[in-house]
Specification:
Layout lengths: L1 H18 L8 E10 L19 E3 L8 E9 L4 E2 L6 E2 L3 E10 L2 H15 L12 H4 E2 L4 E13 L6 E11 L12 E14 L5 E16 L11 E2 L3 E2 L14 E13 L1 H7 L1 H7 L1 H7 L1 H8 L1
Antiparallel strand pairs: 1-2, 1-6, 3-14, 4-5, 6-8, 7-8, 8-9, 9-12, 9-13, 10-11, 10-14
Length: 298
């Protein structure tokens, strides 16, 4: 009997620890911002973000109970390619996907703000970071950077119309999942790129160019890049590039669909079930101990 009560006390302690995790279980209204950035090779790395996505925003599902957020944006690509350097190349080399969140509870918003300020203030951190506070805490929008991903668009050296994606950077500052520890934070990122253009004869063309799913496990919160080595997609045929690009028909549309789904790791799934199980099965757990609890969780 004593062992049963001890087990009960430990489980209650674990469930409280989970529910009060500093950066998890933050329910928010969300907004996506997707931007295209010019390649670093063009010497514009320090310039302001440029691109056809600039300012394109989407207010995600206001039902904060959902752990999935999706975004779809259609853009013009009149300058998808250029010949500024004497050869045909893509105008944009990176897709930046950002999700900003406005916590529903003011006390949680203040708590996360304090964490971010402490983490990103140079004097308070032992490692460098590429993030600036004003980009992470948007005072004008009253929201906070929750998720930031960078996906590079790499062109084949001999044919710029052949491309591949390189997922190179991923940052998560807090989550709406209820997690027991950082390593129980998981995220599934899906991206689909479709193209519409006119061929050399002027006939309309449409095709899904690339579709990729990225399943990240055991993520950690903070300003440290979670991708140690870029994840490369297979090569795919992009919007066609023409040798005489200046005279080519420049009509085109690019449709980008992004979906982000957070989900709990095995430990968090186990711990997050405990409160309801304890409430409904106190006697069975006390009498049966660990074996009874394991059967219920299975």
């Amino acid at each position: 009997m004593h062992n049963g009560y001890s087990l009960l006390a430990i489980l209650i302690l674990l469930s409280v620890s989970c529910s009060t995790h500093q950066r998890s279980n933050i329910q928010s209204e969300e907004e996506f911002v997707v931007e295209l950035k010019q390649p670093k090779t063009r010497g514009l790395a320090s310039a302001a973000l440029q691109g056809l996505f600039a300012g394109a925003k989407y207010l995600a599902d206001k039902s904060t109970a959902s752990l999935s957020s999706s975004y779809r944006q259609s853009i013009s690509i009149n300058d998808y390619y250029n010949t500024d350097l004497g050869y045909v190349e893509k105008t944009y080399g990176q897709i930046h996907i950002k999700k900003y969140s406005k916590p529903v509870k003011k006390e949680e918003e203040q708590k996360i703000k304090e964490v971010l300020i402490q983490e990103l203030t140079p004097n308070n951190t032992s490692r460098g970071t590429s993030f600036v506070l004003k980009d992470v805490i948007r005072e004008d929008k009253k929201d906070l950077l929750n998720f930031h991903a960078v996906i590079e668009i790499e062109s084949d050296q001999e044919n710029p119309g052949v491309s591949r994606l390189k997922f190179s950077e991923l940052y998560v500052f807090f989550s709406k999942t209820k997690v027991y520890s950082d390593v129980d934070l998981n995220a599934l990122v899906s991206i689909k790129i479709e193209g519409q253009w006119r061929g050399a004869d002027g006939a309309p063309q449409q095709k899904v160019l690339i579709e990729q799913n990225y399943d990240f496990k055991k993520l950690k919160y903070g300003s440290e890049n979670q991708i140690k080595k870029p994840i490369e997609s297979p090569w795919y045929y992009d919007i066609p590039a023409f040798s005489d690009q200046d005279k080519a028909n420049k009509f085109g549309v690019l449709l980008v669909t992004v979906e982000l789904k957070e989900y709990e790791g095995s430990k968090s799934k186990y711990v997050n079930k405990i409160p309801s199980l304890l409430n409904e099965n106190k006697k069975s757990i006390i009498d049966g101990g660990t074996s009874a609890l394991e059967k219920m969780l299975d």
